[in-house]
Amino acid sequence: MRIFNCIFVFLFMTMLAFPLIFVDLSSNRVSVQENRMLAERPKLENIKKSPGRFIRDFNAWFEDSTGFRVHLLGVYEKIIRSKWLNSVVDFSEGEYLYLMGKHGHHYFADINGSLIPKFQGKEFLSNEQLFDLAAKLEEIKLYLDNKEIPSVLMFCTDKESIYPEFYPKSIKRGPEPNQLEIITRYLLDHTNMDIFNIRQALLNQKDAYLLYPVSRPDDVTHYTQIAAFFAYRELMKYINIHFPMMVPYEIDDIEINFDEKDISHVKVKTRSSYKRLDASFFDGVNLHRPFTGENHAYENRNPDLPTILFLCDSYASEQFIGKYIAQHFGKSIFIHFINTGHFEDYVNRFKPDIVVFQAVERTLKAFAYWTSELHIE
User: Fold this and answer.
1) Distance between CA atoms of 54 and 88, rounded to whole angstroms?
2) What are the Cα distances from residue 268, in Å, to 108, 205, 222, 255, 257?
3) What is the pLDDT of residue 55?
4) Which of 28-32, 38-42, 304-308 has the lowest mean pLDDT?
């Protein structure tokens, strides 16, 4: 393996060096393949007149003048279309990267594979980020406590935290506890907010149910509906501390249907007691709408039930946790955590009886960032 790695590094460095050595210095060049004139080399004296433009022009010329450029474009096309590559990585330029693991399992790796280091056990949130997040959560906790509003923070899991055994074997798995557990434990130790993640609850069910779709085109970036039910059950343990009369659904209260890929589709057996409110419900509210449907609200037939406010991502949508929560509360309001800077406005406007913060594992950096944007008066 070591010899193979050395050969691979040598070939890789050779591939990098050759195009640099054989840069095309000619002028008035045309690319038939791309049907355009290639960039001209900028004059060196232009660097004093306009440094910024010189850098842009030089970069364009260098990209167009790389040695063996036509040949490399041809090789690139062949590689992108190769059956071997498509059996290892699912990637299109400008899109997200998906890894292909054992038994056909696909894993979301984000742009440029940025989530891979997390699987390897490398630091996902820095000590400074964790410190700042804990301080801000404690500030939120104190603010809500003064209003006698309980608060909960729930972290959902990425697929590789539940099914690490199918992750590509060429990528070494990091030690336990994984980064999600480390972050959860730190926040528990440094804040008074109720904080938990759903990892163990899902690990307890993975032998009985498929908790994440196996591969694309199914949505491997989200858990399945049955996994969402177990996440809801875990959340209700914390909600019930404050609302003990609220009875969570049991497994016998839901109907589970499986499609041809064994992906679960779940609905509550009893008649739905809520309706989705029109988007006009958020008229006049400080709200950035990052994705269609990320911000939504529901009203129960029983208006005397308490109100719940979520600052969350798509893991709490109606397709997943939302449809259970909306059965228990008079109003259920879900706002993407990208809007956390307006949190105080939401509390004053909606007057929630409980607030739940929710973020999936891979969005913890974004969650920490947007939480830091909150400034309580």
Assistant:
1) 40
2) 30, 19, 20, 6, 12
3) 74
4) 28-32
